[in-house]
Design a protein that fits this description.
heterodimer, A: mainly alpha, Rhopdopsin 7-helix transmembrane proteins, globular, B: mainly alpha, 434 Repressor (Amino-terminal Domain), 2 domains, two-stranded antiparallel ribbon, 2 strands, about 60% helix
């Protein structure tokens, strides 16, 4: 395993714990979409760990289909996750922009584009992150296209989250949760551009991991704080006012 | 809607001639660099004028009224529609219960004038129907942006726009924005108590209904965050 494998595995374990914490609520039918988003991101993160990826991709034929699946699942993570975030602050207009037109159309279009670039790229042998093929322009385009819908959803949510984090009259823990979400989503916005920078500077790809894993951890801190707040309130340890 | 720096420079030269800018800034509780930058950039926030006026023992309201676009700013008691919007709902309910039972109430029982959600409560109180729409058009803002602005302490430019469109005293807009104290705005010392005692029990109970409904919405928003993300 290389260093990024350990990073991905660590983040997967953290998110795995968050997912496990939510499982009892899900069994009672509470917040199923958010649990799905958590579970899918854990799958994506595990597929970013070389030994796991090699085994899974090997089972799928050894032609990097697992990488394609992981990128498509990432879009679903944002569809389910961002919808919940917009709904949690009572913004049906943002829910609409993420899940219906133009968001859903963008997700379908970019997913087709991602699949098309993957087919056009020549990646016959299993390679974690398609690192063996990073010189192929189709691979770079494939990677950049994968992050267009997440970047779009993030751009839709960030201004609202910044305003919400600064709002008065809410418990401090809610403000902190919204602040983490805003920061994390803000880091997602430049990812397609950073991937495209690979055409100009190969070193740009290292920044993708820095932005991506930091963003995942920050974004996941938001629902975690909301979860803690809900549990504390149910135990009578938190007031409604700030 | 800040104030032109050239006008503020002229005012400073007039009210404290020969005093170095650094001393004016220190006395006003701000850094010399901040004040210098504001004067150089061309626009000075209203709160700077208020801070400098207070530090010199001048009336902040009269200082603001010396500048465009606030030349129509006058000391004024609050409009009857708005005065009880400056009491948060828990204090309001307690005070109305006291009035109903004939028990004495004091200004100090009514809490802070600026409280969480106070901007929205104030706008609700002075809005006779189309106020938000008029302000959105005047400020060129989307309704979601105005709604977002109402969740924080209102910026003075928006508060002024709301007051002008609603026909309420401009001075109250500066109180809502937490720039002027009620006394500086021209209110009586026990303005809120007078308003409570001057209303009929039916009026007060109707107000309880309105404010309880608004508070319930606010509480529901807080719970919604945990329902969907918790």
């Amino acid at each position: 395993m290389i260093s990024t494998d350990y990073v991905a595995l660590s983040v997967a374990l953290v998110l795995g714990v968050f997912t496990a914490m939510r499982t009892p609520s899900v069994l009672r039918g509470h917040n199923v979409p958010l649990w799905i988003a958590h579970a899918l991101i854990v799958v994506c993160l595990l597929l970013a760990v070389t030994p796991v990826y090699v085994v899974i991709d090997g089972m799928a034929g050894g032609s990097n289909v697992a990488n394609l699946v992981s990128h498509l699942l990432f879009n679903l993570v944002f569809l389910f996750g961002c919808r919940q975030v917009a709904q949690s602050v009572v913004r049906p207009d943002l829910v609409h922009r993420i899940c219906w037109r133009p968001g859903f159309a963008l997700m379908v279009a970019t997913s087709l584009l991602v699949a098309g670039c993957f087919v056009l790229a020549d990646t016959p042998v299993t390679s974690m992150g398609l690192n063996l093929y990073r010189d192929d322009a189709w691979v770079v385009a494939y990677k950049a296209a994968s992050f267009v819908y997440p970047a779009y959803c993030s751009a839709v949510l960030v201004p609202m989250l910044v305003r919400e984090a600064r709002s008065t009259g809410f418990p401090l823990i809610h403000g902190a949760a919204k602040g983490f979400l805003a920061l994390g989503f803000a880091l997602m916005i430049p990812l397609p551009a950073i991937h495209l920078l690979e055409f100009a500077a190969e070193g740009a790809r290292a920044w993708v991991d820095v932005f991506l894993y930091t963003a995942i951890l920050l974004v996941s801190a938001g629902p975690l704080l909301a979860f803690i707040s809900r549990i504390r309130r149910s135990q009578g340890k938190i007031k409604l006012a700030a | 809607m800040a104030i032109a720096a050239s006008a503020v420079k002229g005012w400073i030269a007039e009210v404290c001639p020969d005093v170095p800018l650094s001393r004016i800034a220190t006395q006003a509780g701000m850094s010399r660099i901040t004040l210098h930058q504001q004067l150089v950039r061309g626009n000075v926030p209203e709160k700077t004028v208020v801070a400098v006026a207070r530090s010199l023992g001048l009336s902040p309201l009269e200082a603001l009224a010396g500048f465009e676009p606030y030349t129509d700013l006058r000391p004024s008691r609050p409009d009857s529609r708005e005065v009880l919007a400056f009491v948060d709902w828990p204090e309001l309910l307690k005070a109305i219960a006291s009035v109903y039972r004939g028990e004495p109430i004091a200004e100090s029982d009514l809490g802070d004038l600026v409280f969480p959600d106070s901007s929205r409560v104030w706008v609700d109180a002075i809005d006779s129907g189309n106020l938000r729409k008029a302000v959105e058009e005047e400020a060129g803002l989307a309704s979601s942006n105005v709604a977002g602005a109402l969740r924080t302490t209102l910026k003075v430019s928006l508060a002024v726009s709301f007051a002008r469109n609603a026909g309420t005293p401009l001075a109250s807009a500066f109180v809502v924005s937490d720039l002027l104290t009620p006394t500086e705005a021209g209110w009586d010392a026990d303005e809120r108590v007078q308003a409570l005692l001057g209303r009929s029990p039916s009026d007060l109970l109707r107000l309880v209904g309105v404010r309880a409904g608004a508070a319930e919405k606010h509480v529901r928003r807080i719970r919604q965050f945990e329902v969907d993300l918790g």
